[in-house]
Fold these 4 entries.
Entry 1:
Amino acid sequence: MNKLVGACMFGQSGGPTSVINSSAAGVFIEAMKHDCITEIYGAAHGIRGILEEEFYDIRKEDTKELMLLKNTPSSALGSVRYKLKAANVDETDYKRLLEVFKKYNIRYFFYNGGNDSMDTCNKVSKYLQKSGYECRVMGVPKTIDNDLDVTDHCPGYGSAAKYVSTTMMELKLDANVYDTPMITVVEIMGRHAGWLTAASALASYKGLGPDLIYLPEVAFDTDKFIKDVDKVMKSNGGKCMVAVSEGISDADGTLIAEKLGTNLAKDSFGHAQLGGVGAMLSNMCKDKFGCKTRAIEFSLMQRCGAHLASKTDVEEAFKAGATAVKYAVRGTTDKMVYFKREMKNGKYSCKMGVMSVAKAANTEKKVPMEWIVNDGTMLSKEYVDYAMPLIQGDCKAPLEDGLPRFARLNKVLAGKK
Amino acid sequence: MNKLVGACMFGQSGGPTSVINSSAAGVFIEAMKHDCITEIYGAAHGIRGILEEEFYDIRKEDTKELMLLKNTPSSALGSVRYKLKAANVDETDYKRLLEVFKKYNIRYFFYNGGNDSMDTCNKVSKYLQKSGYECRVMGVPKTIDNDLDVTDHCPGYGSAAKYVSTTMMELKLDANVYDTPMITVVEIMGRHAGWLTAASALASYKGLGPDLIYLPEVAFDTDKFIKDVDKVMKSNGGKCMVAVSEGISDADGTLIAEKLGTNLAKDSFGHAQLGGVGAMLSNMCKDKFGCKTRAIEFSLMQRCGAHLASKTDVEEAFKAGATAVKYAVRGTTDKMVYFKREMKNGKYSCKMGVMSVAKAANTEKKVPMEWIVNDGTMLSKEYVDYAMPLIQGDCKAPLEDGLPRFARLNKVLAGKK
């Protein structure tokens, strides 16, 4: 084992989740156990914080607060959506990164995010390798979209899925309360992969979920949609609940939101009142069925609803962070932590390994077509068996005055060198 | 004490809440303890179920399921929005009600709802009295709007307030995650009274809430709004979070949603893309500040989010139902249960009493103007002290496969007589 002594840098990137801070806690707490890690830095707003030499000295944080990160949603260090250009197109950022890495003797770099963030992680890793600067680079997966390849699932998905399925059950009870016809359309995040929308099927399997579920994996046809709703309305006493992915597109790949939105006039401020594809489909139903309809968007709540986090997800996210540090200290670099499911006697467990970060960066895992059933309107039992273990257990921040006590970091900037 | 022997009828009315079924459980479980109550009926869809002789035989339910009602959101028996005409205008419904009451020997009538439902309850009570038919009529309060008079607060409010404040804290963490300017506008229920929107101030007092809160109690001025936001943006690093009541109106009493919506063109289905006042204000901000803005609606989730119910609220709602039965059995009629707050050594407790149901029916309690501070944009410490005890404690349905196990009623219709 090649013992590498130096500072470690951790950054958060992409859309926040309920458990991305849990991985941060995992990285920080594990890093503190290793003498070879001299300083522990947390980049403010991901890669941008490194470029701008703005990062926090994590050793100045109270360990109790770092542990509270486990149940604090969103990205405590700040996130970023910054796409590094390819090094052979524009080397500026890479030169600057190398400069900063050298100046602070950063020998461990952990980057937490989804596909785009793994792309950043991969590019940085390859550049540092090429430059001959020894640094162990590890990706830590995160995304409510659950669309990273190879890994069985992604930290963040279980909690978002738990939010979606639980809330859907509650909404179903609410939407059915009057004895008049009613169509409810719930819009759920997911531009290309329908994993999160699929989670509403967990509620359906409990008898309290949507009657129809539409994912981006299946070409959406508005005429068929109306027929599907009509069928449900007739067989179901005039009630229909629909879950729809924000990213549903037609056979040509055009977003339905875009397609239906083209004719939209502007409001008094000159902005098209888009309001999402859910609102549009809800209006379409109002038009066709003449009954009460309602559009609901889970909006940011589905990704930051940490009060409904899955314990399985929180623990796995924490462990993913810690595992990245362990591997790096042992000499691994240029990898991403991934999850491997093991089922023994029907009992789920999650093993962690490492895979090529390059592979994680450039692939996108969709919901398997064979799991999408009922003419593209429901998920199969195979999906339910896949997702159910991921939403198990409750795990949330302690309460203070009946409200969550989230982590409060000191955020002491590391002294500039 | 005049012992009155006969059946009891319970109905749910108006918009559902997280705890309206908790009151149902309170009524049913208490009713079973009294020999003078022969049958226990639950009206399907409130007053309409009585008119149509459609009610469930609650004695055919499993007690375990009735107890699960405590943590099951929405109205398990079905709700209704049905306004009884005054008896001197049209007696038809009243005659029919009397007929049904006589046929089934209904001597106890419990009605659970807000102002409108108490109006129904009051009218039925007065008509039965006038007809000389002995029946004990009791209102059980319920409304997330918290706008019933005399009572310190209403069952349903605490849980909705807990949903609003907790979710607001999570959203605040999420909304601030990027290092770019951002305005978030969250729309909260409440047409005339701002109680529920006010609950977002609980998050502000924890340092993670909206910067600006607008209630229907204060005339809304869009120019002032833009100035308020501008001030926050400048002092707060380009971030602003706004909580706004759906019912905000201008000085003339015109709804802002209506005012801003008038110029809205129709979408491709011929419907104005209203999307609520939050979306309109968000667009207005986008126009004025040119930065990213986001509108979020808590929609039905704020009233059915039983997974975030307040234990205090759940227990009080249950007790309110039980108290109504106890009073009725002892001879009380024509009243509504109300809550009286007692503070001893800083410790909150809630006593229950009865008040005129007529009074509850026709009054509307608003947020006191002296609790609205910062030039109409924030709630005072007095409000926080008022609301904080109401959101205390967690209390939710048991989990089954990681999802809530809500009550499953048999709903056996009572045999028609």
Entry 2:
Amino acid sequence: MSENKIPYKIYLSETEIPKQWYNLNAVMKIKHDPFLNPATLKPCTADELKEVFCSECVDQELNRKDVYIDIPEEIRDFYKMYRPSPLVRAYCLEKALGTPAKIYYKFEGNNTSGSHKLNSAVAQAYYAKKQGLKSVTTETGAGQWGTALSMACAYFGLDLTVYMVKVSSEQKPHRREVMRTYGAKVVASPSDTTEAGRKILKEFPGTGGSLGCAISEAVEKAVTSDSCRYVLGSVLDHVVLHQSVIGMESKAAMEKYGVSPDMIIGCCGGGSNFGGLIAPFMGEKIQGKNNIDFIGVEPASCPSLTRGRYVYDFCDSAKITPLAKMYTLGCGFMPAANHAGGLRYHGMSPIVSALYNQGYMRAVSVEQTKVFEAAEMFARIEGILPAPESSHAIRVAVDEALKCKETGEEKTILFGLTGTGYFDMSAYKQYNDGTMKDSIPDEASLAQGFSTIPDIPQNK
Amino acid sequence: MSENKIPYKIYLSETEIPKQWYNLNAVMKIKHDPFLNPATLKPCTADELKEVFCSECVDQELNRKDVYIDIPEEIRDFYKMYRPSPLVRAYCLEKALGTPAKIYYKFEGNNTSGSHKLNSAVAQAYYAKKQGLKSVTTETGAGQWGTALSMACAYFGLDLTVYMVKVSSEQKPHRREVMRTYGAKVVASPSDTTEAGRKILKEFPGTGGSLGCAISEAVEKAVTSDSCRYVLGSVLDHVVLHQSVIGMESKAAMEKYGVSPDMIIGCCGGGSNFGGLIAPFMGEKIQGKNNIDFIGVEPASCPSLTRGRYVYDFCDSAKITPLAKMYTLGCGFMPAANHAGGLRYHGMSPIVSALYNQGYMRAVSVEQTKVFEAAEMFARIEGILPAPESSHAIRVAVDEALKCKETGEEKTILFGLTGTGYFDMSAYKQYNDGTMKDSIPDEASLAQGFSTIPDIPQNK
């Protein structure tokens, strides 16, 4: 292989770490509908939101004016410890597939937390510290977000309490241990440390907990102290904003080599990684400067974009958060128990939802056995063991590259590889043992989920 | 922090990946004593060794002539998927310690296998493939080596059977699963697939196995087939040779910024990572061109350099391998059951042993609670969760930096960060729970180990 063409890994230099995030909210011609206070059904005010979230994050959440928002020096200094992340030209995968497509992936698993979540965790921890807070709370399910936030809080000297879904805490003791090593207090939820937890425990003794319950506990713990706030790892606009560092770097790295993508593919759970990856490219599409094919990939087990409704819904299953206008399966929807591929969220980032609704992107859903098939192939060929979540994007990138093989098109495909699968080996074991099953919700399951969508005038 | 000084991470470009390995054997003025055939007590011939190992590796093992050995293009292409590895300036750690020392670390955990082991795994798999072999065998204890070799064999299309110490296979099912995901056959050892395994099982039903037994099984499996060979992840000279890519890159990266180390620190188990890290620097020291202070760090629980004997010993506890002249605690030595920090090997690489014996380097031993204390501090400050093995080097680097704080010396310290601790969270849990204990072998334990050293004329 000659030395002077595009390298396997395109590393930008430290000085090329973006100095600004890209705010899709500012560039969208039709803004997404605002969060609603569930009591009044009126748009949430900044002050209301600031009781729960850090002030600067709320200001970013509501900023629909500035396309570029400065990344503070302190956050860039942290970014320097693991960014710029590599943009990899998947030469080995292209060769194995025999495709004329040119495949690139932006790898965000290149830090100890193992995923893109760190990009927003460090920002939120920094703003909390700057505001003079002593501590923050959050919830975590699979543990990627809790891990990333633990790292960020250790760095900035903030106390952190993570409410970890009890069943997950028991099934993933090693995830819990990473958080403890970073100094976080990890509480199995439901717990007796909050009113919400005690109530659930009384009502359902022996329950394994749920993300909805963990959110309730984390929010309660945060709002009952002046020096504490609640932080969230996806869905919200300011999280998408922080994740735009992925797209900004990808764009800079590709431009450095005179390459522009025909297609950008990312997995969609809450939507923050996908929103961040596409941000600056999508901004140009909205401005009529490109015609990139954007594809959000979701699990067939939890198909919020492809089979959900575009309505106002709660962000949590305990129905205590503001209402967001988004594609949702209903806040009471639960993916089938045998779903092992992650991306279990019932709704979708309001920004991503709006882009999809306005026709700027498309969405596809994939079954988990096909996802793990792609994951294993990718691991063996490209040498990186991918997270199940990330592997949704791999699956579709491979499928699109194989289409190019048939048509002879030399499309340039960029996909987001959000993280590593180190802590997902139980799911890989199911796949390796041949015991993994697919589960596509039937109409009755969907109807059951939709019945939990709030019955309010806005949804008529 | 200004932008034009030494960056946090020094990434060489892909074209700067070394084109040659550095062969310490060729530059040493006094060569280390050769391997002996245990039956004849005569030096092993190349032909004898080639029955067990790949031919090209044997030629490298015995090469005491060429200082530089070309890295084949195919191996360099694989290296491009994860190399050059970053050389990190530990600004955050320096600040936290308040030391005038300048600390650098070469991070080898930046690939899916999570450790430096991949550097030799890919080379050995390539040579096996080139020789026309269909398969290779190996053993693994903690799993780093087995994981790395699985990746390499998947890439080159070689069948791999890994004999994994049974107790380790049960305690680390996720490690086993990573290897399976890369297509390796993982056999809990002792097994009924070999004579050696069946014999042990008959003698000790219900045994949890040992590395010695796993080696016996892997070697038996390899030598009973013409198209199969056995590969090993440390100790041997050709493994140290492959690992010299670490030192070559470190040297190139430091020279690029006009920096030269006063001190190089690495952890020592079998010695291949340490030997590889120091190789080109040590070569210059032997030639009188520098006076770097080289420090090998070993666990107080398994102190082969600091408390062992420099004699001929078996490389395995089953006493089936050739005899190597090395620092050893005796091939029957077992670290205390509560030792969780890795680096459990009873002996030491013959090259490293000879360098130590000839006074070119020093060695220190550290207790595991102090090692994990440094590991946790490092994780919180530098953002990388280190492997327990690597943390031995962190401990001593921190101690040396603190000495500089006292004396005001601005020493430049380079240490090797060999891997990540993702699969070592049980050990971190012991530390986090406060249940981790230190164990320093008493004189009786050492005497017991020494009694297993072969009683041959060379050892008189």
Entry 3:
Amino acid sequence: MKNVYDSQTFFDSYQKMRKEVVNANNLIENPIIKKLMPNFSGKKILDLGCGDGNMDMFFVQNGADKVVAIDISKNMIEEAKQKNADKKIDYMVLEMEKIGSIQEKFDFVYSSLAFHYIQDFNKLLFDINKLLNPSGILLFSQESPLLTAIVFYDEKQQKTIELNGKTYYLLSDYENETKRENVWNDNIVTKYHRTYSTIVNNLIQNGFEIELFQDSYADEKAIKLKEKYKYEKDRPMFLFVKARKKKDLFDNNSAKLPKGQSQT
Amino acid sequence: MKNVYDSQTFFDSYQKMRKEVVNANNLIENPIIKKLMPNFSGKKILDLGCGDGNMDMFFVQNGADKVVAIDISKNMIEEAKQKNADKKIDYMVLEMEKIGSIQEKFDFVYSSLAFHYIQDFNKLLFDINKLLNPSGILLFSQESPLLTAIVFYDEKQQKTIELNGKTYYLLSDYENETKRENVWNDNIVTKYHRTYSTIVNNLIQNGFEIELFQDSYADEKAIKLKEKYKYEKDRPMFLFVKARKKKDLFDNNSAKLPKGQSQT
């Protein structure tokens, strides 16, 4: 996976953006994902794409027993270790494609706005199934399929249009589930578009029971601070998914057989 | 529910359209929903919004034990009784909002392109749960949330736009889950827009386990007959959902209690 967060120009711009109070992460994504949290007190958590570790500190401050937090970016993990260090948090530089190498099991796998960078979503869910304890929870946010659908042909790709005094988003290539490259802070950011239907089907295929799908919305406070967030009603920016591990895809032993029976 | 199919001008135009071989129902919707069929041999089927009964005849010709087929339109039920009569099929004029009055139980509830006419989807699924036997299957198609989202302000509401040689669909009001009125064959057709997330959540809340979400697609044959179907890749017209009854919402008796225990 290309890692744009280790490009210095990108990282600097990104840092600047994240420090602003008024951004979509702080005003829209974070309040919603916090409302969707399972009870994680006393639990072991895996954070996929942890960034600066802000949420990992939130987890331990709110009762988590242990957090393993990974990110592909060395810059991010360095910052997390400085800003959000705690003896209950293990920060690791690790690509999400390689979580199959982790030997521990977790009660709760969390990921904020990172899955749209991953090409093979099906494989990712397969790996997460392995890492979860029975009935463990997966909670993730990602960019909405309605946002990632459009293909960027150039830097100035038009995404909206005004018609009769109303703003419309342009929708195309919804069923082309391939990569999307767009320019952000002078760097090419590569994302992978997937439909709602594919997200549903991949979860089911990988042993998850869906508990909730949630599109993002902007509350009055957010719209007051940034008027354009009113367009969340027209096309939400983020999708949140909460799912429970229902089937163990890796259960090759006889643990599930009734007492007194052997596997033959 | 307003029933546009009993307006004579609408019914005549509709009849004409359905008789054309080259339409989206025949070339796109019907081939896909047939591929998603559960095994219904020897089963009891309920068809919600049966239209001219074409699929009900298909069910009995392929081994269904009994079919109850309802439609809100007297015109449609009359036509079904003439064109697709069989002793195994019971045709009834009945609004989908009133299926709670049906006393039988079914193994398979089927509905093609009718659910987008129903205002209260949650209530509909609640009623279907009651009508299904344990582990019974619900298979339905409806207009895609990507298609129903846009609000019609007038008869000539623009739905697509050409930009740099590419066709884009206009997306807005995706999170406004209210009615949509548009003009079709000189009649106002009222539909209800729901998001993918709401469809997922309502199924779960009403005791269903989702087996598959499927967006529509056009195969080469369809595109050869009508070139515009190539735009299915940009914005599919239909959504198909297959789900299994997992929980009985109406189980008030002691049927599930272990032997020897009484309900106290």
Entry 4:
Amino acid sequence: MNRPTLPFDLAVPIIQAPMAGVSTPALAAAVSNAGGLGSIGIGASTVTNARQMIEETRALTVRPFNVNVFCHEPARRDPARERAWLDHLTPFFNELGTPAPTSLSEIYTSFLVDDEAFEMLLAERPPIVSFHFGIPSPDRLAAFRKAGIKTMATATNPREAERIEKAGIDVIIAQGIEAGGHRGTFNPSEVDEEWSTSVLVRSLARQTKLPIVATGGIMDGRGIKAALELGASGAQLGTAFISCPESAANASYRRALKSARAATTRLTSVVSGRPARSMVNRFIVYAETAGSPAPAAYPLAYDAAKQLNAAAMKHDDDGFAAQWAGQGAPLARELAAAELLTTLAREMT
Amino acid sequence: MNRPTLPFDLAVPIIQAPMAGVSTPALAAAVSNAGGLGSIGIGASTVTNARQMIEETRALTVRPFNVNVFCHEPARRDPARERAWLDHLTPFFNELGTPAPTSLSEIYTSFLVDDEAFEMLLAERPPIVSFHFGIPSPDRLAAFRKAGIKTMATATNPREAERIEKAGIDVIIAQGIEAGGHRGTFNPSEVDEEWSTSVLVRSLARQTKLPIVATGGIMDGRGIKAALELGASGAQLGTAFISCPESAANASYRRALKSARAATTRLTSVVSGRPARSMVNRFIVYAETAGSPAPAAYPLAYDAAKQLNAAAMKHDDDGFAAQWAGQGAPLARELAAAELLTTLAREMT
């Protein structure tokens, strides 16, 4: 194979996926302490909260950990499209007895235009920073390199992998169509070939000398070994970690993962405005009905979905929750993070 | 793993996929002689031709080989839908200067209702018969068992696998979303979870004690090893064999597989009426345009597509050809079948 090892000091080449809103400093630290690479996602956090999460993680582990940011193109505003989307969702706002918003907000600032987050990361210097939805500018990457920060970025196809390699990023996260949560596609308006993790990893292994991390549909040690066989240098697991007690997943999300619903996931743009794989719920079914308007751009659509979810959760109704999950969700186990890590490592032998 | 081995006498657990219209007795025999399991597909053949193909294969090898039949529910006729589909395609018939048909024919008889094909198979007694799109009746399966014929059937999800196991079939072909050609879905009107080969194999390995053959996106020995790691007892490769000199693929199909087009496949129902993965061509792009009517049922839609292709090929235009290919098509190699088999076996070590 002659594939490189990951340029991090890990006992096992297993990365816990960042999963903004689900991962926590406790989860990341537990994974890192157990010999894997824990991650926190700060793409949905304020800079103040992000700094705090990094410091909390550092307080819990001396091992390497990873901080993930969102590098999407900032939303192109389109009042007519946003209005149509809000109109489409108004029956739900009415049903939940909460006023429909009159406009949508860009609830996340892209790292591409977030100088404050960049300066914070440079100052905090986490061992590893990873990028989703795109890659930062050459000068920011140069600054990270100079600061000794290793970098990783998600590719969903060979073209994105090529851009990542040319940018001088250290590791390619090869995300297959099976993956839960947001697909890392750079430009969601391009046709998506929807390659599986296996096909993508096998292809990238021939294309690049960079280390590749397989992600999407991997739930156990056998899955990790299979990915290594295909040429990956490591595997990133997200859904497998949601049920850990250290995660921030709420009770209804955990229940859903243990239920028959886990077998029914769908890649949809209606929750956030970008394709993401979620367990199917009432909101998705309605919002995707034939004849529905196009969702507002990311993350504008997410603003609406989050407001609906907040209103519904007051009545313990999780029919509007973003319950991301990969295709492998039925294989998820409920273990503490350290135990899951050692189980995965044992299954790899 | 404690997974069973395939109940056939093979040197390597590699099956060449049936691929009606592409596989030939020469291809199947070359694969079987090289220690794998060669297959012919007779779902699109008359009983006379099918018998001849079986006899030709038997004349070329003393090793086990596999004969595949289509077990789809016969088309439910719907004159309005068929008329709308023909109207949709009429501009192409006009352009190609060939009269649009006034009605569509069921060009393939389902094995479920084909007594003559059943009797022929019982009389010819090929070592293995495999089923796609469904499974035959219990009495036919009992007759095959009594005749010493081993059986395999395609599953695209856990429910189909359960039905296959309950029917007493010997091997489950676990077909992931990456696979080229027709998806084996029993009932295409059900929601398709579109599981990748990896997720499906890993799940079925926990569900059943039957041997599982992984198929979809597997192009080389590393891919086969990865599938075995996940719990498969063997792997079935289709796209990897199309370019073999022994296949019936025409020159334009072979050229397309070597071109950049190989990287752009799509699962579409517009060619045949059932979901199948194909390299994208002009016909597919047009026939899938937003607002297009639903394709006529399988195999009625295929009647129209085949007529268009026949007319276009007179002008060396392959824009209407059914050029099936899996997601792994860019990794295809051009080797004689025996050499491909030995290469795959070597890559597995």
